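yo

u said u wanted the structure for the complex thing, so here. seqs first:
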Amino acid sequence: MNPYELSIAQARKELDNGTLSSRELTTSCLERIQAVDDKIKSFYLVTAKEALQQADSADKAIAKGSVAPLCGIPLAIKDLLCTKGIPTTCGSKILENFVPPYDATVIEKLKKEGAVLLGKASMDEFAMGSTSENSAFAVPENPWKADYVAGGSSGGSASSVSAMECLGSLGSDTGGSIRQPASLCGIVGIKPTYGRVSRYGLVAFASSLDQVGPLSRDVTDAAMMMNAISGYDPRDSTSVKEEVPDFTASLSEGMKGMKVGVPAEYFVEGMDADVAKVVEKGIQIFKDAGAEIVDVTLPHTDYCVAVYYLIAPAEASSNLARYDGVVYGYRAENPESLSDMYRRTRSEAFGDEVKRRILIGTYALSSGYYDAYYKKASQVRTLILQDFQKAYESCDLIISPVTPTPAWKKGTYADDPLSLYLSDILTLSANLAGIPGISVPGGFSSDGLPIGIQLQSSHFREDILFKAAYNLECGTGLANKCPEL
Amino acid sequence: MNITVKEVEHVAKLANLNLSEEELATFPGQLASILGYAAKLDELDTEGVAPTTHAFSNKNAFREDVMKESLKRHEALANGPSENGEAFVVPKII
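structre next:
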């Protein structure tokens, strides 16, 4: 077995008992990247030199005695988390030359644990997209099938884990951007409760929806990573002072007494038959494990795409106003005036999808349209949140598909943004309601593409998600299952 | 729903964007289909429903005003596309 094939928990054991060094493990991942990344394109940037230095520091710490759980573990980082001294492009030409002078809080936390950071993972520009095809640089590929999308926007974070180029990664999820690529690539991905993980140093897309979370090859690893990155941060005014439990502690608890809700609205028209089958199998696993299955209703599900694609672009249009060519990033050449500089800088360096969303958001916030679009969407957001509050009165968690279909061929939606937006229908509402959601591998389509199962719980109950996800993983036997490359 | 080229040009101006001929050919139709789809929300009666801007009713996050170390000037200027060691440089305004 190659070291890069190990799960985080397995590697931890080997590092601690001295049968493997972090340098060996890191070298193994770097060689794997060298071997497969020309094809998979998970990484925008590989920081081999820094990674090996971090590995050597980890080995020294391990030799001295007890270390943090992620010490010496090689990870990939979505390229929208600020990394001090290492470029952070957000998949955009406008930030191509940006080198942050500070670390995001989650990066600080990983470094404090002694984790090894292998490099920056490819993504949709400013995290806007569901396929990572909106990257201004490299578009990652689904490791399970050539020419198929890895999902998005954390596409490189997902493909790097699935292709065994790293042991885990960080992504961000504004409308499904962790859970959807995790599902399409056959790995675990969790979007924590809004406020659970600091957003300080996360390049903003839609501030009331963005959340950082881990992607990994099994549920235990995701719980270990969540332990490392969670917690209140005074530098993020929306982070919440809520106690962080040990997320690995609840894993082996059974499902007896748990109520699992099944929302009819999530089994949407046009859903792939294989996806429905995989979720039914998941429901059966919970039943067999002693859980009670109950019907729940989330009546406003059908409106969440409309709500999301007004609120997220509105927030984005405001957040992205900062890219004006003055203090960092790209600047148009030879501007005639300040306003010419602003306009040409933005027009030359933003991609199509980013421009499209800035225009939608600006329209929805503009005079005369604010009430009809932004305010209306914010009101329906309340109804969506209330749907979940009501549903959790009769269940502990909700099971559903993550996406209506498995991965699709690159280019499928190139000229049809609305159809692609509609494929996000099952992941958007968790962001709108601020609740946590996890994608766990559930099975495969008839042509061998992975299909994930989504579990959602109420605010700050990631412990329930981890317990249920672990039970599911035991039932499917799909922990650490990766494709041959 | 119909969105005219003129409307798109107006919104682009508000957003400080110049649009190319090609963009002006595709964006109006795409925006119309997306915003037209959003009109679906009109099916719902939201009279008296309070808008949600954050999933939690966050109170203001106040803190003591304490001096802390911040970025050195050269660090803050390092990413500037044009700077003179003291400030960011932009085209003449006045």
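The radius of gyration of chain B is 23 Å. The domain at 5-43 of chain B is CATH 1.10.20 (Histone, subunit A).
cya
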